[in-house]
Amino acid sequence: MESLLDDIQSVLYSAEDIRRRVKELGAELSSWYRDEVPLVVGILKGASYFLADLTREMPIPLEIDYMVVSSYGTSTRSSGVVRILKDLDYDISGRHVLLVEDIIDTGLTLRYLVDILARRNPKSLKIVTLLDKPARRKVDLVPDLVGFTAPDEFLVGYGLDYAERYRNLPFVGILKSRVYAEQR
Ligand code: 5GP
Ligand code: MG
Ligand code: MG
């Protein structure tokens, strides 16, 4: 039987590390939105596991929506040209919007999205990301809340894919470079 585990160089954040940190993030966000009903927006597909766990650590009234975006580029690098494949179901004007991302790398994808959403006049627009790689940033984009500041490695698991695989690993790990060869 083929195992995804054979392709992992090392586990960076274990399921338990993630659970503990997500609990803290949920508590922090619950206090931010104590008096509001935020619209929590997950960017699919990467943020799906994070959003599901995070919102279960937020015992406040909230609503959930999703966007599907595709960023042109290779499997390991984004280009900053973003296509919206599925837009929000709800109008966000006057709403408190919390964008939930799996990882911010160059920042190109989110910079583009934030600019689009800001034009729809939300009352507030904040970003929480599970992982941040600030060393690789190409545009000015600072998330409001970060789970883990990650090293410059290609990470998979807990929603993060390589060529659509590995999302279902319960931890975040470093992918062996032989899997993606010279792509990056
Ligand atoms: P950015 O536009 O900030 O460079 O990249 C954003 C997207 O690129 C992320 O949402 C993710 O889909 C992908 N990405 C960036 N770094 C990684 C990584 O280390 N692993 C995986 N699996 N995807 C990444
Ligand atoms: Mg993402
Ligand atoms: Mg991806």
Automatic annotation (TrEMBL):
One GO cellular component, as annotated: cytosol
Nucleotide-binding among keywords: yes
Required cofactor(s): Mg(2+)
Enzyme Commission code(s) on record: 2.4.2.8
Protein name from the UniProt record: Hypoxanthine phosphoribosyltransferase
Any single GO BP term: hypoxanthine metabolic process
Chief location: cytoplasm
Catalytic activity, reaction form: IMP + diphosphate = hypoxanthine + 5-phospho-alpha-D-ribose 1-diphosphate; GMP + diphosphate = guanine + 5-phospho-alpha-D-ribose 1-diphosphate
Family note: Belongs to the purine/pyrimidine phosphoribosyltransferase family.
Organism, scientific name: Brockia lithotrophica
InterPro entries: HGPRT, Hxn_phspho_trans, PRTase-like, PRTase_dom
UniProt enzyme class: transferase
Segment forming the signal sequence: none
GO terms, molecular function: guanine phosphoribosyltransferase activity; hypoxanthine phosphoribosyltransferase activity; magnesium ion binding; nucleotide binding
